[in-house]
Amino acid sequence: MKTYTKTHSSKKVAEIHLQKIKDRGGKATMTPVKGRFKIEYSFPEKKEPSKKGATAKKKKYDVISPDGFSIRIGVPPFNSIKERDEYFKMWKNRFAQQGYYSSVPYGRIHLADLADYCEWIEV
Predict the structure, then answer these.
(1) Distance of CA 39 to CAs 16, 20, 30, 42, 43, Å?
(2) Cα–Cα 20 to 30 A to 65, which of 10, 17, 56, 87?
(3) Nearest C-alpha neighbor of 89 from the set 68, 71, 110
(4) How far is CA 57 from the centre of its chain?
(5) Sign of CA dihedral 65, 67, 72, 73
(6) Cα–Cα–Cα angle for 64, 79, 73, nearest 5°?
(7) CA-CA distance, 122 to 60, in Å (whole number)?
(8) Is 74 in contact with 110 (CB distance < 8 Å)?
(9) Is 35 strand, coil or helix?
């Protein structure tokens, strides 16, 4: 915490200054010095602004297929888990006619097991 010093020739002006410091949350002491009034004051350290509201970084979600690629096709990362899960169901339904998902490292994956082979991430 940095300490500041200010000397005033008028007691009235020094008292006004002292009050303004206290109104702003600072700590101050006033001492007379050779017919003048010396004020030593400091302010508490500034806290980092809270990360609420618009400044907070919102969590985003994604699903990585068994082949290592995002399931999103021209879609930004999902804002909620619910949104992610709904898109996953829609994506999985694309393979319903053939009855399986074909993966290079795993071969044919039954659609009931597809979610277990995917990576569910937060971005």
Answers:
(1) 11, 12, 4, 10, 13
(2) 56
(3) 71
(4) 4
(5) negative
(6) 45
(7) 6
(8) no
(9) coil
Distance CA 21, CA 25 (A): 7
Token duo for residue 114:
């597809």
Interatomic CA distance for residues 109 and 87, integer angstroms: 19
User: pLDDT tens, 88-103?
Assistant: 999 999 999 999 999 9
- With tokens 């994604």, the residue in question is 62
Distance (Å, rounded) from C-alpha 26 to C-alpha 6?
14
| Domain spans in the chain, listed from the N-terminal domain onward | 3-42, 56-122
Structure token digits, residue 51: 């990360």
Are the C-beta atoms of 120 and 83 separated by less than 8 Å? no
The values of phi and psi at residue 41, to 5°, are -145, 160
In tens, the pLDDT along 43-57 reads 888 766 666 655 567
User: Which one, of 41, 50, 29, lies nearest residue 1 by Cα?
Assistant: 41
